[in-house]
C-alpha cells in the first residue's frame, strides 16, 4: 500500500460546536487518553497535533515518547493560528503588525517542534484570515501580508514544509485563500520550495470543487504542489467533517483514482469531527471505506479507468460506477 | 417487482438549453421516432407525454394506438403550463384572470386526454408560477389563486388525479410551491381526494431536502399523499436532471428504502435530460441502477435496514453503506 | 411604532465557535454585565433568556428584578434543549424515551419561569432533533414524537405560548423542522391554540426561502401562525447570524413590508452573533437599520408599495428599490 | 465618467430557456430591430455581438454601418463556441482534435471581425469545456488543450485581446475554468500579452466569490489582468442574469469601489437576461443603478471609504452602508 493513514488527534476527543461548547461527550480528555484511543484504530499510523494545544515546549519530549510507545508517528504539526481570541481578526494577514509578527513566530515554533519530532509537515491553516462583512477588508494588502509572512516563515528552515490548507469559509464568512486556484497562485507568488498545498477533500467540495479535479490541477501539471491530503465528507454546503463514505461515493472514487493517476503518495489523513459518534469507530470505518475503494481501484487497474474517462460519455461513467458498487449484471 | 418504470418522452429527443436552443442532437424528432426509441429500453413500460406538444385533440387516437403497438402505456399526461410565452408570468397563479382561466381549461383538457388514454395521472407542474424579483408578487393572492384553480380543475372529473409537482426554482428564481412542506399544505387546503403529490427526487434534493425524508413525510403519516415518483440526480445546486446513480448513492438507497417501507407502489419514472448522452443508453442505465439497488434492498430485507436506523449511530449507517456497496470485509 | 425591539442576551457576551471555544472576547461574563450592556442600546426594550443558562429556579427572582431595574422586559424564554451533551442526539424527538420525557419537562419548567416573569413566549427550538447521516433516523417516528411532545407541553398551561422555530441545518446536518412549510404542518398537526411559529429571517433565508414570502404564508392565510420574529442576516449558505442590513437589503425591505401588510405587530428581536464585533454597537446598528427601513416604508405607504407588486414587473421592482435606497433621479 | 456602458445584444431580443424554447417574447427579432432598441437606452454606447449569430463574413459591413448609424460602438465580439451542437462536448478542450482545431479557427475569425470593426476585445467563453459526470473527463489533458488553443489563437494577431470569461457551471455541471483563481492560473500559463480576464459579476458571485475581492485579485497585484467587466445580479445559486441592483446591494457598492480603487477603466457591460421584462427598460434601469452608486461613491470619495475598510470592523461597515443607502440619522 503506497499510502499511510493518519488522523487528527481531536477525532479522539469530545467534539464541540457553538451550541454545545463543552462537547458532545465521549473520547479522551488528556493527550494520553486520545493517543491511546488512536492506537487502537487498525491501519492508523500517523497523528496530527495542534501546536500549543497538543504539543509545546513543555511537553514535547513526553509527546514524542508517547507517540513512539503507541507505534504512531507525528505526521503533521498544525500551527495554532485560530484557537485563541487574539487571532480572531486574522493571523498572517491581520491588520495589526504585532499580530502578523506573532503569527510568523508561531509558525517558526511549530516548525522547530516538528523538526524535533521528525515530522516534515506543518499545516498552515490561517482560517481566521478573511472577513465577515462587505467593506471590511483591504484585499490587496491582506494578500501581500500572506505572501510576506509565508516567505519569512519558509526561510526559517528548509527541512520542514509549510502546507497551505485552503478553505472557503468558516470561521470567517469569507476566508482569503478559499479555492484551489487561489492556493496555487499564493504559493507561486511565495515561490519557496518548502511551501506546498494541503488538499482537504471537504474544503474542496464545500467550495463547490470536484476534489478529483483539484487533485489534477495540483498534481497533474509540470510543478507538483500537492503534498498532503485530508479526507472527510459533507453535504457540499458546509465543512461538516463527516465520515468518509457517508455522502459522496462517486466523488470519492474519482478523487482516489486521480491521486493514484497523478502519482500522489504519502499521507491520507482523516480530518473528521465525530460530534455524536465514537471516535475510534468513526476513524476505523473511514479508513475501511478508503481501503476498500483503493483496493477495488487496484483490482480494476488505472488503465481500465482511463478508458472510461476516455469515452467521455456520461452513460459509460455511470455504468462503470454501477459495476464498481453493485457488480456486473 | 412492485414498481413499474416510466420515462418522460423528451428523454428520447434532442435536449436543448438556453445556449444551444436547437438541442445537442441525437434522439428522435417525431413522436413516432421517440416512442420507437423508448420501446427499446429494457423494463420500460410507461411513457409521460406533454399536453399539446405530444398529445392533443388532433393526434390522440394515433398516439394511443402508437403507444399500444410499442407495448408501452401512457403513465402520465403533463399539462402544458410552461412551454409557451403566454405562461411566462404564471399560469394558475397568473395575475391576469384570463390566463388563470386558460390554465384551468388546459388542465381539464389534459384530464380528458388522459382519461381517453386510460391514464389516471396528470402532472400539474406550474413551474412558471413564482417570481424572479423581490417586490414583484403578491404571495397571498398567488397562493389563493393556486388553491382556487386546483379546486376547480379537480372537480372536472374524479377518475383522473392531479399530481402537484413541487420545485424550488427554475424557470423562475423562486417558484411558489417549492418544498415538500408547502406542497402538502397546498393540497390540504385544496382538500380534494384526487389531488396528490408527485415527488421528483431531484427537485427535492436541489431544495436541500433529503428525498427519503420527504417520502416519509408524504407517505408515512396518517394521510398518504405520495402518488407518483420522478427519479434523477444532480449536484444539489440545480435541477441538473442527470442519470440516476451518478452522484448521490446513499441518498438513492435511503429513498428507495423509504418508498418500500412506507408502502409506495406504482411508477418510478425517469425525468432525466441526457443533453449530451444517448437517450436510450441513459434510460437503460438509470433503470439498471434503480433495479440493482432495489434488488439489494430486497436481499437484505427491510427489517435489517430498520435495525440500522434504530441504532441511530452514524458509524453504523456508514458501515452499512460500505457493506451495501463494497461487500463485507 | 408598532414594534418592540428585543435582543438575545448572548449578543452581549463573548461569542464562540468550534475553533475558538473560549469566545472571541468582549462582552460581559455575568448576567449582570450582559444586562447592563443591553440596557445601553437605544430602543431596545426586551431581552431573550435561555433557560438554565440565564434563568433558573435559583436566580429567577434576581433576574426579574434585574431586568426591571434596567427597564427591560423578558420578551422570550428559550428552552434549553441544545446546550448540553445529553441533547446531542435529540430532545423532543430523541430515540430514548427518557430523554424525550426530560425535554417535555424542560419546556414545562421554562413555561413556569416565563409565566413568573410575565413573559408569554417560549422559544422551542429543538435544534438537536434531526440527523447527520443517511439511514440514521426514523423520520416517521421522529415526527410523531415531536407532535406528542409539543401536545403534552402545550397542555401544561395556556397562558404561555410555545413558538416553534424552524431551521434547516446546524447543529445537525439536517434538522427535522427545516422549512416554513414543515413548521406549519407540524403545528397544524399539534393543533393547540398556544403553539405558534417563530420566524428567524436568517433561518428562512439559509433554507433558500425568501423571508417575505414565508411571512405571507405564516401570516396571510386564514389562520395566522406568526407570533414572533428573529432578525439577522447571512450569505444564504449558513446561519451566519450577522448584523441586520449587512448583505440582503431588498430582502429586508420586502420582509418588513410584508410584516406590516399582514398585520404583524410585536417583537422584532435580534438574534445576531457578533463574534468579532462589539455587541452594543452591533445591536444598536442593527436596530438603526430596521428603524430606518420601517420609517421609509411608512413614509412611502403600504398602498404605494402594493402598486409596485401589482405591476408584476421586475423593472418596476428594481426601480422602486433604487428610489428607495438612492433617491429619485 | 471614466466608464462606458455596454450591453449584450440579446438583451433586446426574446430570451428563452429550456422550457420555453421560443422565448418569452418581446424584443426584436432582426439585428436591425435589436440595435434600434439598444440605441434608445440612455448612456448606452457599446454593444456586444456574438460571432456567426450577429456578425459574420456576410453581414459585417452592414453591421458596422448599422452600429455607427446608431452612434453605438462594438465593444466586444463573442466567439461562438457554444451555440451549436458541435460544441456540446467542448470546444478548445474537446477530446476530438478536429473540434479543437475548429474552435481555434473560430476564435481567429472572431478576431478578424473584431479588428475590422475597430473592436479590440474578444470574449472567449468556452462554456462547453467542462464535464457533467464524475469520471467523464481527463482534467490534465483538458487543461493542456485550453492552454495550447489559447496560445495559438493569441498569436494570430496582437491588436485584439482574448478575454477569458470564467464561470463555475452551466451549460456543464462543471466548467473547467470556474473561478478567478483558475482563470489567472490559466492566463499565466498561456503567457501572452493579449490574453486577459473578463470578470462577470454574476459568474463570480454564483461561484461563491465576493466580486470585489475578485476585482482586487485580478487588478490589485503587480500584473493587472482585469480587462473587461460584465454586470448583472443573481441569488448566488445560479447565473440568473438579473438586473443590476436587484438583490445584492452592498456587494455592488463594494465591487464598484474596488474597480475605482484599483484603477479599472473601460467597459461596464450588462450581461442580463430579461426573460419576462422589457429589454430597454431592464438595461436602462440597470445602468441607472450603476450610475447612481458610482456617483455616490464619487461624492463620498475613495479615501473616506478606505477609512471604513481600515477600521476592519463589521459594525463600521454596516453603518457606512446604512448611511450610503438611507442617509445619516
Estimated structural class of chain A:
alpha/beta
Query: Could you give the count of β-strands of chain A?
Result: 10
Largest sheet of chain A: 8 strands, parallel, barrel
Strand order of the largest sheet of chain A: 1-2-3-4-6-8-9-10
SS strand fraction of chain A = 5-15%
* Gyration radius from CA atoms of chain A, angstroms: 20 Å
Put simply, the count of helices of chain A is 11
User: Please, what is the oligomeric state?
Assistant: homotetramer
**Greatest chain-chain contact:** A-D, 55 and 55 residues
Helix share bin of chain A: 40-55%
Average pLDDT for all residues of chain A:
97
N- and C-termini, Cα separation of chain A: 30 Å
Helix and strand run of chain A: EHEHEHEEHEEHEHHEHEHHH
Q: In one word, what is the shape of chain A?
A: globular
* Low-pLDDT residue spans of chain A: none
Keywords:
homotetramer, 329 residues, alpha/beta, 8-stranded parallel barrel, two-stranded antiparallel ribbon, 11 helices, 42% helix, globular
Amino acid at each position: 500500500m503506497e499510502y499511510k493513514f493518519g488522523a487528527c488527534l481531536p477525532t479522539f476527543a469530545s467534539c464541540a460546536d457553538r451550541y454545545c461548547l463543552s462537547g458532545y461527550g465521549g473520547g479522551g480528555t488528556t493527550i494520553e487518553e486520545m493517543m491511546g484511543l488512536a492506537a487502537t484504530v487498525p491501519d492508523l499510523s500517523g497523528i496530527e497535533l495542534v501546536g500549543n494545544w497538543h504539543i509545546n515546549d513543555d511537553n514535547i519530549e513526553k509527546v514524542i515518547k508517547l507517540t513512539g510507545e503507541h507505534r504512531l508517528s507525528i505526521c503533521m504539526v498544525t500551527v495554532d493560528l485560530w484557537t485563541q481570541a487574539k487571532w480572531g481578526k486574522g493571523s498572517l494577514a491581520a491588520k495589526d503588525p504585532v499580530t502578523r509578527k506573532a503569527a510568523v513566530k508561531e509558525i517558526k515554533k511549530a516548525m522547530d517542534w516538528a523538526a524535533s519530532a521528525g515530522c516534515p509537515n506543518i499545516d498552515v491553516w490561517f482560517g481566521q484570515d478573511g472577513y465577515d462583512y462587505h467593506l471590511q477588508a483591504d484585499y490587496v494588502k491582506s494578500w501581500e501580508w500572506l505572501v510576506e509572512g509565508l516567505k519569512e516563515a519558509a526561510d526559517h528552515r528548509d527541512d520542514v514544509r509549510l502546507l497551505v490548507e485552503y478553505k472557503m469559509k468558516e470561521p470567517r464568512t469569507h476566508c482569503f485563500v478559499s479555492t484551489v486556484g487561489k492556493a496555487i497562485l499564493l504559493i507561486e507568488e511565495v515561490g519557496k520550495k518548502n511551501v506546498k498545498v494541503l488538499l482537504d477533500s471537504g474544503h474542496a467540495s464545500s467550495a463547490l470543487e470536484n476534489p478529483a479535479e483539484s487533485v489534477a490541477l495540483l498534481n497533474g501539471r509540470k510543478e507538483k504542489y500537492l503534498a498532503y491530503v485530508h479526507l472527510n465528507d459533507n453535504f457540499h454546503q458546509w465543512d461538516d467533517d463527516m465520515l468518509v463514505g457517508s455522502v459522496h461515493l462517486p466523488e470519492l472514487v474519482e478523487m482516489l483514482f486521480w491521486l493514484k493517476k497523478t502519482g500522489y503518495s504519502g499521507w491520507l489523513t482523516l480530518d473528521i469531527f465525530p460530534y455524536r459518534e465514537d471516535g475510534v469507530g468513526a476513524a476505523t470505518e473511514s479508513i475501511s471505506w478508503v481501503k476498500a475503494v483503493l483496493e477495488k481501484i487496484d483490482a480494476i487497474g488505472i488503465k481500465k479507468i482511463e478508458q472510461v474517462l476516455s469515452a467521455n460519455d456520461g452513460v459509460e461513467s455511470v455504468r462503470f460506477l454501477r459495476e464498481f458498487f453493485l457488480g456486473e449484471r
